[in-house]
Structures are given as C-alpha cells and as structure tokens.
Amino acid sequence: MWKTGRGNADFSVRLVRSTMGESFNSANSTDLFVWSKIATPKVNCFAWRAISGGIPTAAALAVRNVCFGDGMCILCGIEAETTDHLLVSCTFAKSVWWLICVWLQVPIPETFVSVTQLLSFCKNLHVGERRKRVVYAIFLLTMWTIWIARNDKIFNKKLSTAISVLDQVKESSYWWVVKRSRISNLSLENWSGDAALEVI
C-alpha cells in the first residue's frame, strides 16, 4: 500500500512523482533528474536509481556482503564496477557516449566521471527545449542499454559492442519519439541517420 506523510491520500502517479522529487530534493540531485515523459517508466526508474546509487553493481553488492566475481567492471575489466564507472567512465561506456553524441550532433564532452555530470551536461545543452527533452530521454535510454549489455554479458554470455548499443538506442528511441511525442511523419531510416534531432 502506498503511504505518504500527507495523511490518507489516494494513490496517483502525480503523488508518486512528487514524493520521489521530494526525496531527491533532500539528496540535492532533483534538479538533475526529471521524469521524462518520452522515456518508459522502467527507464525513468532505472535512471532515478542510478543517480541515487541504487543499482546492483558489483561495488553496491559488495557493500551488502554479496560476493560477485572479483568486483571489477564486467565490460572493461579495468576498474571496480561502480554505477558511475559502469554507466559513464568505463572505456566501453565512453565509446557508447561518443557514438551517441556524434549521432545526435551534440558536443562531445571531454570527460564524464559520474551520472550527475552526464545529466548536468544534458541539462545545459544549447538546443531547443523540445530537442533537449528528446536528448535527455535518449541519455536515460543509453544508460539503461549499457546496463542491459552488462547483464547480457554476465547472465547470457552475450558480448555487445558500442555499435550494437547505439543501434538498440536508435531503434528504441525512434519508437518512443513516434509514439510518445506523437510525431507521425518520422521514418526509422531518417531517425537513424546522422542528424536525428534535425528531423524533429
């Protein structure tokens, strides 16, 4: 049952979003995480958990006394698998982010070391508000797709490449933009081209 400190309030999505926002305010991260209307709820929740350090990376599991391999990043094997490393600063993740930025034709940042820096970069992009909302949703989706690539390698022994992650992001984001933004004159071919943001 959903309970808040507001008495006997009826359940609503608005109330859940508001409550999540309030808990973020206390953590000083709310201004960076905004619930995306374009992204799916699963991806929004994942991003919220990522920015609050709540995804079960090897480092997070070790804190809970759950042994998971040697604790190193499964995608690069170079550093400990923390949320920020896995989703942002891993060599695999950096390759993915480079491809995403080239595809979206947004500046390629020199360094990202955390999810909060990534979302701050997105928030400060100099593009129109509509495009910024789409880029933000794509950034959330990219983090989710990197997470899926990590899980595929661990549980299914499936190797992903940065290109395959990019292709998954392009296809999923296309359907999000068409269905959730109600843009009907957009083809997957145009969306997957070199200037996705130019077609919206």
From TrEMBL:
<keyword id="KW-0472">Membrane</keyword>
<keyword id="KW-1133">Transmembrane helix</keyword>
<dbReference type="Pfam" id="PF13966">
    <property type="entry name" value="zf-RVT"/>
</dbReference>
<dbReference type="GO" id="GO:0003964">
    <property type="term" value="F:RNA-directed DNA polymerase activity"/>
</dbReference>
<keyword id="KW-0808">Transferase</keyword>
<dbReference type="InterPro" id="IPR026960">
    <property type="entry name" value="RVT-Znf"/>
</dbReference>
<keyword id="KW-0548">Nucleotidyltransferase</keyword>
<feature type="transmembrane region" description="Helical">
    <location>
        <begin position="134"/>
        <end position="150"/>
    </location>
</feature>
<keyword id="KW-0812">Transmembrane</keyword>
<feature type="domain" description="Reverse transcriptase zinc-binding">
    <location>
        <begin position="31"/>
        <end position="97"/>
    </location>
</feature>
<keyword id="KW-0695">RNA-directed DNA polymerase</keyword>
<protein>
    <submittedName>
        <fullName>Reverse transcriptase zinc-binding domain-containing protein</fullName>
    </submittedName>
</protein>
